[in-house]
Design the sequence.
């Protein structure tokens, strides 16, 4: 799990004896690894990590601001928004086999299938590389770079996955969601949205993990220090 990295991962230079972080991730995936990536679109460009994800057919859309700075395209969905600016909205599950299975899991474990996203980037998908959407925005959505409207196409992928069979014969999986908000406390603990269940469901459907414990009783500690 790579959750909201604030700096890029390094890659080995050609001929170097150092095995870089990206190289390790690629070797892990080539051996049937399963990677979960959540990105904050307002963090500076993570060229190596995002290039690796692009090799799986999942690209975080970027453009240049009016002052020539590279920024990611942020999705705005006024129709399904819960905030006046349109940047915090309820995403819809895409219609494909895996997305439907995840939606069914979310519905099974929660009170509904609504997943709340905020400050989420647009994903461009190359289906020839196995990439498919999981969550999408509404049909009237637009993307923005700063205050400028960049695209008005609507129904953008805001979460995606890619599955492929490696030369080793093993199957590798990459899951990407370009927002840091998916695990924000107000969304994660809300009874009105299924963010918690959506977070766990790809681990079961895509990664084949055992069931994560849910509905556990919360214990309030008097202090924050953990001791052995």
Sequence:
């Amino acid at each position: 799990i790579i959750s909201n990295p604030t700096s890029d991962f390094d890659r080995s230079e050609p001929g170097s004896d150092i095995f870089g972080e990206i190289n390790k991730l690629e070797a892990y995936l080539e051996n049937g690894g399963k990677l979960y990536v959540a990105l904050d679109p307002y963090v500076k460009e993570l060229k190596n990590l995002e290039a690796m994800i692009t090799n799986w057919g999942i690209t975080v859309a970027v453009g240049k601001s009016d002052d020539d700075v590279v920024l990611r395209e942020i999705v705005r969905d006024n129709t399904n928004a819960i905030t006046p600016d349109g940047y915090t909205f309820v995403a819809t599950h895409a219609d494909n086999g895996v997305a439907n299975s995840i939606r069914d899991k979310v519905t099974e474990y929660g009170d509904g299938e609504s997943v709340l996203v905020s400050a989420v980037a647009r994903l461009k998908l190359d289906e020839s590389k196995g990439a498919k959407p999981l969550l999408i925005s509404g049909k009237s959505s637009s993307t923005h770079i700063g205050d400028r409207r960049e695209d008005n196409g609507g129904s953008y992928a805001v979460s995606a996955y890619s599955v492929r069979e490696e030369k080793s014969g093993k199957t590798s999986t990459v899951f990407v969601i370009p927002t840091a908000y998916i695990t924000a406390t107000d969304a994660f603990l809300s009874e009105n949205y299924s963010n918690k269940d959506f977070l766990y469901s790809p681990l079961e459907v895509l990664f084949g993990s055992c069931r994560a414990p849910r509905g556990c009783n919360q214990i309030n500690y008097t202090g924050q220090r953990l001791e052995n």
User: Anything to note?
Assistant: The first strand starts at residue 2 and ends at 3. The helical segments are 21-30, 47-54, 97-109, 185-188, 195-205.
